[in-house]
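To assess whether ligand presence alters the predicted conformation, the chain was also submitted together with heme C. Input:
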Amino acid sequence: MRYPWICLCLLVLSFQPLWAQQATENDRLAARASNLLSYIAVDYGESVDNGQLLDTDLYRLQQHHAVQALELVRELPDKPGRATLESGIGELQEAIRRRDSGEAVRRRANEIADRLAALYQMQRSPVHSLPSASLAMPLYRQRCARCHGNWGQGGGAVPDLRNVSRMASFSLYDFYNTLDPSVDTVHSHRIDGDLDSRQRWALAVTVAAFAVKNQLPPSADLAERYPALVGLPGMAVTRPIELPSSVRNALMWWRGHPHLVRSLEHPLARAEGLLQLAETAYRGGDNAGAYHKLMLAYREGYQPLEQQIERHDAVLLSQLQTQWQKLRREALAGAPNAEVIASMQNLRTLLARARDQLEPTLGGERQYLWAILLFTLALALGLSLWWGLRRRKRARL
Ligand code: HEC
């Protein structure tokens, strides 16, 4: 009676590498489509102005990119939402045909790329922290500088990596994607072929730093107002151009100096970001990867603040502990997707609550500062009145 079960298990296990292979092939297809969409978003605007063609070849290339992106999406496994994605690309093709404005086409292309990433759970952010821009500089000098110049200045057909508005249109992930020869055709295998994922993320940061060289760091209160952008995945997936101008420049600087920004990242925000990555991995069938991210979230994000949370709210701490344990058990046992994902979301809600409690809001802090200022002013006024009265009294005497 046991044999059929053992055979079934063995059969399932023997298929596992096949599934894994299929998953990576799908990841590659989705990454290629995302890469083409990012080029449409950035390059189309240089080919058309006010409905007039500025560069016919570049314009045709964008049309071709859209056709290719559609073909790639059609190769991906069908699921609810893919049809909307396909019709979105159809509308993008129509917008290009109508010669809509660069901005309109950029928005459409980026929107489709984000929808694609959500639908196919693309991992667009590194699990480990990003290094400083200088780490990959020797590699950059060795591999990239002969075409891109020592400081990214480029020349001829090679784009200027210091061009702020162009660089603002790419996310860090877009740079990373460019450096994968199985995804992007810009560079040959000889240039990028043997780079591993960490080297590519490090080079993405090196590239991002060129546009903000010699610029002063943004004010610290911006980091408090936009906590999602000083950490992962926000820093890796956000395109600065989509942000209000004050924070756009800040993100440009932050992603070029991630090692300096790390201290601004709230550990609980790091835990939430890693849980988001763990969720993506779990949905994609990568249980081991999800477990690794879960443990990183626990160690790097939650554990350092455990005592602080306890001081603020002991009940919340015990809820958090129970939820971490539950999730760990479920992930280890390979529980069904829906169960694990619901637990992850519960945990993220609890973490967000803990963060709210630990961090007094900026508004609250401001009120406090105002109160001190008003008190000081009142005191100064009182003292000067008292001093004036005393002098008058003395003069009368
Ligand atoms: C043989 C010359 C050459 C080498 C070497 C080279 N690149 Fe490029 N790179 C190019 C060209 C040309 C483009 C533009 C292609 C296009 O837009 O069609 C480009 C595009 C890029 C882009 C996209 C930027 C944009 O504005 O479109 C990035 C990022 C980039 N390269 C980074 C690197 C890095 C990092 C290395 C080293 C690992 C490297 N490149 C090596 C020639 C080169």
